[in-house]
Structures are given as structure tokens and as C-alpha cells.
Amino acid sequence: MTPFELLEPVSVKEALGLLDPDDPSVRPVGGGTALMLMMKAGVFRPTRLISLRRIGGLSGIKAGRDGGLTIGAMTPLAALEHSADVARVAPVITRAMRRLSNVRVRNVATVGGAIAHGDPHMDLPPVLIALGASVTVINPTGERTIKVEDLLTGYYETALEKNELIAELTIPAQGARRAAYIKFTAGSFEDWPALGIAVSLDADGDTVRSATVVASAATAKAVRLTGAEAALAGVRIDDKALARAGDAGAQEAEVISDVRGSAPYKRELIRVHVGRAVRQALAQNGATH
Q1: For the whole model, what pTM was predicted?
Q2: Among 23, 37, 222, 244, which has the highest number of CB atoms less than 10 A from its own CB?
Q3: Distance from C-alpha of 39 to C-alpha of 145, rounded to nearest angstrom
Q4: How far is CA 157 from CA 10, 221, 225, in A?
């Protein structure tokens, strides 16, 4: 790795002042797990890294009276995995964390980093999109709120400006919605996925009132499959309904090829796993199990 400057501000204001919107080699860093891999591979050569670890108030999980969650950007992923509040409000996150890399990574990697990195293979973003989550972003002139589905704009690309930081994540109350995440790997159990499918359903028994269906890893960014959602809305779930939803999702997805599979292979994965994710979500007895 080439030499670089590492700074450790103690306030958000100080951190924002150290960012340089005109220099892409200056980056904020949370846990740094993904960024270090890019640096070791020579893909990214920073001149300055701004560590956010000494800034107070950016970590922690708070349950709101409305049934939602507020999660600080510097909260380690392991904290999500073991939080009773997360397990109660959004148990799909708890289940997803158990297959995210390994415990060493989860102890260091942060919520904000997992979102801001823009890697389509990350497990957390598609789940957050399915849950309707949003982030609060701070910049030198104030703050703004962005839905996670709007934050991700392309392959390793986000809507964040170079002088902005994610401060916190908000997950709205889920009520009786049921959610599932399927991670299909071509390698080991905890490997990067060849496909991620996240589903959230408002259902009455086996009849779906509305659905959110999100694909990742097989696509350049985590993205909603609106055709699959439309195919599920108002439908009593059976094999034919799931096949129609899977066909719609496979047809509309802009699939990419990489070392984990060709585009036709990943399209077929979508076709199959949309239905499996829906069945898995329906098997959850509401939001508390």
C-alpha cells in the first residue's frame, strides 16, 4: 500500500472540515474492512483517511415509541446481530447477520460503512430497502434524509456527496409485515452472494396485500423488482403465483456477470429464489419471530 495520512477527528463538524469534495482520494472510514481490501489490492490509493471512530454519538441502537429503530452509523454489525430490539422489530436483520462474512468482520464493520460503500454484494442494503429504511446524512450546511433505495445509484456508487457523512439509519415500524432474506452463494456459507433476495410482505394468511422485493449481487446495485411486486399484490400464494412473480423479477432485472456466475445463470437464480423468499417470509409468524 502507498503511504497515506490518517486523521481521527472527535466531532462531526471537525470530520466534515477534513473532507475534500474535490479530491476522491480523501475518504471517511468507519470499520474499514472493505476499504482495506481495496487498498491491499491497489484498487484504491488514498492520500487521506478520516477515521470516525473517536466521534461520540454515532453508535448505538434506539427503539422508538412508534415501534421503529434508530441506529447510529458507527454501530458495529455484531451489535445488530445481538440486539434484542433489532430481533423484535426486524428479525430478518438478525438472521441475515449470521451469514455476513465472519464474526471478526462483524465486530469491526459498521452499519454506515456497509451502506455507504455501495458494494452490490453487501447483505445489509437489500434487507434495509425491503424494510423501507432511510439514512440521515450530514453535510457542512445541514442534513438530509435519503431512503436507502435512493441512496444506492450504481456499481459502488451512491448519492452521497464527497462532503457528506451518514449519521444514522432509521427503520420504520414493521407492524405485522413479514420479511425474509435469501443469500445464495456459489462458494462457502458466509461468502459473497451470487444473489441476494430480500422480501417484505403485508399478508392476510397466504394472501399478499402488498410486497417489496429486492435483488442484489446479481445486479449492479440493490434494486426493487417492481414487476415481481405487482405480480404478488392481491394474490393468494400458490406455485403458479410464485412462478409468475419469479418470471417477472427475472425478466426485469438488469443482471451482471462476474466471477460468481454468468448473467443467464443469475437470471435463473432470481426466477427461482423470488418464490422461495416469499414462502420463507410467509412462514414467519409476524414481525416477532
Answers
A1: 0.95
A2: 222
A3: 30
A4: 27, 8, 19
pLDDT confidence of 285, banded at 50, 70, 90?
Answer: low
Round to whole Å and give the CA distance between 288 and 276. Answer: 20
Domains and CATH numbers, the chain: 61-171 (3.30.465.10), 181-284 (3.30.390.50)
The bridge status of strand 178-184 relative to strand 165-171 is unpaired
Q: Is the dihedral of CA 85, 87, 92, 94 positive or negative?
A: positive
Q: Which amino acid appears at position 176 of this protein?
A: A
pLDDT in tens, 264-282: 999 999 999 999 999 999 9
Is residue 249 within 8 A of residue 274, CB to CB? The reply is yes
Residues recorded for the chain: 289
Backbone angles phi and psi of 137, in degrees to 5? -115, 135
Rounded to whole angstroms, the Cα distance separating 167 from 258 reads 32
pLDDT in tens, 168-226: 999 999 999 999 999 999 888 778 999 999 999 999 999 999 999 999 999 999 999 99
From residue 94, alpha-carbon distances to 21, 29, 40, 106, 179 in Å are: 35, 24, 30, 12, 11
- What is the pLDDT at residue 171? 98
Is there a contact between 214 and 195 (Cβ–Cβ < 8 Å)?
no
Cell readout for 248 is: 417477472
* Grid cell digits, residue 51: 477515521
Distance CA 278, CA 228 (A): 11
How many CA atoms lie within 13 Å of 271's alpha carbon, on the beta-carbon side? 10
Using CA atoms of 206, 88, 136, 278 in order, give the dihedral in degrees to the nearest 10. Answer: -20
Residue 207 sits at φ, ψ, to 5 deg, of -105, 125
Amino acid at 2: T
